[in-house]
Amino acid sequence: MKQAAFALFCVFVVFANASVPVYVMMPLTTITNEGFLNNPDHIKWQFGKLENEGNVDGIMIDVWWGIVEKTTPKSYNWEPYKQLFTIARNANLKVQVVLSFHKCGGNVGDECYIPVPKWAHNDTDYVFYEDQYHNVDDEYLSWGVDLKPVIGGRTAVQVYTDFMENFAKAFSGILGSTITEVQVGLGPAGELRYPSYQLDKWKFPGIGEFQMYDLNIREDLIAYAKSKGETLWGQSGPNNAGHYNNWPDETGFFNPGCQCENYKSEYGQFFLNWYSKRLIEHGDRILAQAARIFQDTGADIAAKISGIHWQYKHPSHAAELTAGYKNDMGRGYKPFADMFARHGATMIFTCLEMKDNEQQNCNCAPAELVGQTMYAAKDSNIPYSGENALPRYDVGAYQQIEYETTRVRPLHAFTYLRLTDELLQNGDNWNNFKSFVGRMHNL
Fold first, then answer.
1. What is the mean pLDDT of residues 399-422?
2. Is residue 387 annotated as part of the catalytic site, yes or no?
């Protein structure tokens, strides 16, 4: 009895004295497309203010594949990042890096255009995801080329591995000290998902579309269906899953009451299990390489799950399903957390600033979704870090983040979106932020 009481006391002490580090995301245009650090003198001023007045722990920066390895395979330009990391180190700031293998441009908040290197697709679209109309999405390479040597004789996994190995070599002297975390981009916007809601075709809160119609993925589906003795199921994806901007009940596939081959049918479960399983395997392959490369550096590895909170309250969880999260049975994030655990990776999740009652007429439940992913990470015994999805400066948003920070167990870290002059030079915004950081350090 005394031991149990002591254990509960220890849990209370840990929660009562939690100090969660706060990082700030750098602007997407910090490094120019030409490979130069943008306005280093202004960055020095910003970093000084963040450290001296804001008491933040560090910054987060995208390391763009489309800039570093822009023109020639295996020719890497790390110079602007070396310059940035030196400025951060001199300001006593730590750095979270995001190895961004996706295109910048076309997602919420994108203010730049950084495509994947042209040599990686060599004038062919077969390396990208496609929707049912064979519209090509060039944000990120399809998992269908993970193990196919179609990128100048290399597979996609080999391309990413070579990039990570060269990064580790170039920054070996500061990994684990200045660079505390390496987040590995695993899909569009750096998130482990399919590009199911592309902004040139989709509007909130549409269900999105399945992205599995490129040649390589269709070949995989054909082989998988044949192995299960269901050859006909491998011919295509669902033919009644609607379009990007449909609501679930406007379709046959996502309507739970439809007397058809819907998501609950034997075929629907077959397809959804395959679709999500292959996405998890994609993350598994790349995180296995990241764990090997960074395991002795002292830096954490991490990856990000997308915060698809719309249509969450619909029984089908349609918007999550098209993105690859099979959450129709309420267990959609546990398989991802289990995969992260195999590699000792931190799960990063967004929309921690959102309350359920702020989202109307969209079947939205961002806070409920955050809780589900937190428990999935806890049950898999992996660290969990958070971000805000949209720029917010108001006290209410900060209070919601603080609530989420210790809701299940203390966050591993929180990263604030994003560093702007509106944050630093507006008196109310800056004072609110400083107070928030202070509270995060003394929860």
1. 97
2. yes
Q: Is 63 exposed, middle or buried (0-12, 13-18, 19+ CB in 10 A)?
A: buried
Using an 8 Å Cβ cutoff, are 103 and 116 in contact?
A: yes
Catalytic residue among 130, 181, 191, 320: 191
pLDDT digits (tens, 9 = 90+) for 239-279: 999 999 999 999 999 999 999 999 999 999 999 999 999 99
Q: Is 181 tagged catalytic?
A: no
Label residue 55 left, alpha or beta by phi (over 0 means left) and psi (-120 to 50 means alpha): left
Interval 115-149: pLDDT, tens? 999 999 976 668 999 999 999 999 999 999 999 99
Structure tokens at 368: 């409920």
Tell me the sheet residues that pair with 385: 348
